[in-house]
Amino acid sequence: MRFVSCITVACLVLSAGPASAEWFADAFVGQSLTKDSDVTVHSAPGQTVFRDVEFDRSLAYGGRFGRYFDSVPFLGLAVDYFHFSPRIGPQPVNIDGCVPGGGCGGGPSGTQKIDIETMAISLDVMLRLPLLKTQAAPYGALQPYLIAGAPLFITTITPRTTALFRNHQDDTDFSFGYKFGGGLAFHIVRNLMLFGEYRYTHTEVSAGDLDGADSGRARFKTDLDTHSALIGLSARW
Question: What is the pTM of this model?
């Protein structure tokens, strides 16, 4: 949260400059919800597939810096940083494969706690529709916008209380995915806008250097399909 606070202060300072709305710096915070997904674990006993695992809702936050082009003011590019934590908590699930602590063949089982921390960094294309233009807001006091990008996801998996992994030893996966979304920004004071945004992100995580409970290597695989609702401040200058 210190990162978000610093960018928010910077936005407030920049709001004292002239109203050009060409460059922008955003800070945002909200909540993420990751869809249920199968989790596959490859370990020495064999492959285990945990069906329809539920991920916890999590705090989401980040920042964005970019520019709308002078010649085409509805089109812009931005560097975006996004962080969320879709942790897995204890829950009953059905599995296919080897039951932890039992035989193979599948059946009812459960998950324990696995921490997941994800950072996404991307170069985004942004499209906006300038509405309600005024002298103080030449690019529109009201701006619906769309975003799209192909982020690099940096995801750290840390088993906490599991039967298949050596607990508290983590692995970090690097993967590409995609993102799209949209929002609505409106002026609140000169050079400062408030916005609400929805974004959808997808990536496939495959952490293959975890320590298994049997001292061998184990691989964790799942899809992270995440819906996020965000609110933020945007400085324009």
Answer: 0.82
